[in-house]
Amino acid sequence: MDRISRTRKRLIAASAWPALAIGCYLVSEFGEKARIPAPQLVLSLLVGVALALSGATSGNLPRAAVSGSQATVGILMGSYLNPAVIRAVAGTVLSLTGVTLATIALCAGSATLLARVSRIELADALMGLIPGGSAAIVASAEEVGADSRVVAFAQYLRVGLVALSAPLIVAVAQGPIAAPPRPAPSPRLATWSPTRTRRRA
Prior knowledge:
Helix content is 75%, strand content 0%. By secondary structure, it is mainly alpha-helical.
């Protein structure tokens, strides 16, 4: 009987994470209809925070799942680069590099100040406030001696605030934007539409 109950608990624990992922995906679909910025990230982040604060999560994801998710994020980050994008920013490489270095220096200075006026370790503050790919930074936090939990909280708090505020800032800076044009009909559907068939006849 004890063996059956232990097996049942293991099955429930193994299915909890996939069920949570599916639930977050469904919630994010409603978030897209409500025009929430980056709903897959923001809403899932809020769900994770709620579960962590409530104590509902008693364990971490399996290491293989964490490594697989990091590999997926890495592939997605690399897939954004293509020859057209590189050609488009070729003339602004120096200015982009300068702004990036200035941003890193500003964040590093803020992290150093935060570590001095609070009980946060310098490594945690630096990894938590440094800009860039949050998933990559969190993944490498423990390798440099930082607390991955503090780093993850700081990084994803920043990501969530930026995702929510950036569209509002752009809307205020650019003013009212005209509605995007309606997409053209699919060539195949247009070719085989009944209207075109009647006209040709």
